[in-house]
Specification:
With 338 residues, this protein is an alpha/beta fold. It has three domains: 6-70, Winged helix-like DNA-binding domain superfamily/Winged helix DNA-binding domain (Arc Repressor Mutant, subunit A, Orthogonal Bundle), CATH 1.10.10.10; 74-180 and 312-326, Nucleotidyltransferase, domain 5 (2-Layer Sandwich), CATH 3.30.420; 191-307, 2-Layer Sandwich (Nucleotidyltransferase, domain 5), CATH 3.30.420. The chain contains ten helices and 16 strands. Strands 5-4-3-6-9 form a five-stranded mixed beta sheet, sandwiched between helices.
Length: 338
């Protein structure tokens, strides 16, 4: 649209949706834009059906202030994550509220991409307001292309973002599972600028997601977090060292995790090391902390905590999907019911 500042439109959406900034004076201050400019672009978003304008209660007899919020009904997103034997999914509205969720089994040795496409087709037919997709995979991803997927050979070197965007003509974001999980934990717990590492032992190999001072770390080649290949001892990698663990963590697994914790502490010095709560117990964390203290002074050991991995994962995919929504051109068409 003529005279529209696309960057400002995106910033307004994100300030209202993610930072919960509600008034023009606040938006003008935070975005360093004039009152009339902010008002003009808010009016465009209102006309586009994205933003609601509300009049607040009178305060101290003063003039009622207008407040703005994102419309939950504006769009719906679909988050999906791929496991070896299933595809999980969640449908959410434009403010991130979960509307429905479920899982779809994947037969052994069945390629994941055709199964994923069939599931998305079905969900889009049932939910015509879905207008963007966020997909999580247990693999290294660069700009939507999967390039390191040792446990998912059918995904290796697949431009998953391109395939899905072409197939469904909607915006798509594809992200590594642990990157999504650490984003989801960060959003859900409002850890501000803290440095976090999310460690997942995994059914099919370990991985980690890394946030430093609140910023996701992908690395120069998008390989950050692939801890399965980290060398440890006796010519074993971390992945090999924990491969034979049982439900109760054995001493070798405890030691391997403690060595990795030491590596994280000595290189990144995070505030938190987060574990999948279904993989470790509080007793395991006590053992890991005690063993790590044999390698480094206890003052440098991050706080070890448990969390619900699937919830964090889906929350992260939801946040990534909403981020994608806010970055779309103002004139972009959305899928709507006829």
């Amino acid at each position: 649209m003529a005279g529209t500042n696309t960057d400002l439109v995106i910033q307004l959406r994100q300030a209202i949706l993610f930072q919960r900034i509600r008034t023009i004076p606040e938006l003008s201050r935070v975005l360093s834009a004039s009152f009339p400019t902010v008002k003009k672009h808010l009016d465009l978003l209102i006309a586009h059906g994205e933003i609601d304008e509300q009049v607040s209660e009178l305060s101290n007899g003063g003039r009622p202030a207008k407040q703005y919020q994102y419309r939950a009904e504006y769009a719906q997103g679909l988050a999906l994550y791929l496991e070896l034997d299933a595809i999980g999914f969640q449908i959410f509205d434009a403010v991130g509220t979960n509307l429905s969720f479920g899982t779809e089994p994947v037969e052994k040795n069945q390629p994941h991409v055709p199964a994923l496409i069939r599931l998305i087709h079905r969900l889009l037919e049932q939910n015509p307001h879905i207008s963007f997709l966020s997909v999580g995979v247990a693999a290294s991803v660069e700009n939507g292309q999967v390039f390191f997927a040792p446990d998912y050979p059918s995904l290796q070197q697949v431009d998953l973002k391109g395939v899905l965007a072409s197939q469904f003509d909607v915006p798509v974001v594809v992200e590594n599972d642990m990157n999504a999980a650490v984003i989801g934990f960060h959003e859900g717990h409002q850890r501000s600028q803290q440095s976090l590492i999310y460690l997942y032992l995994g059914k099919n190999g370990p991985g980690s997601g890394i946030l430093i001072n609140g910023q996701l770390v992908r690395g120069s080649s998008h390989f950050a977090g692939e801890i399965s290949v980290v060398p440890q001892y006796d010519k074993k990698t971390f992945g090999q060292a924990i491969a034979r663990r049982q439900t109760a963590l054995d001493p070798q697994t405890i030691d391997a995790i403690s060595r990795l914790t030491t590596t994280f502490a000595a290189t990144l010095n995070p505030h938190l090391l987060i574990f999948n709560g279904s993989e470790v117990t509080e007793h395991d964390l006590e053992q890991i902390r005690s063993k790590t203290a044999e390698y480094i002074p206890e003052a440098h050991i991050p706080l070890l905590i448990r969390s619900h991995w699937e919830t964090d994962y889906l929350n992260g995919l939801t946040r990534l999907g909403l981020q994608l929504l806010t970055e779309q051109p103002l004139s972009a068409n959305r899928r709507t019911s006829s």
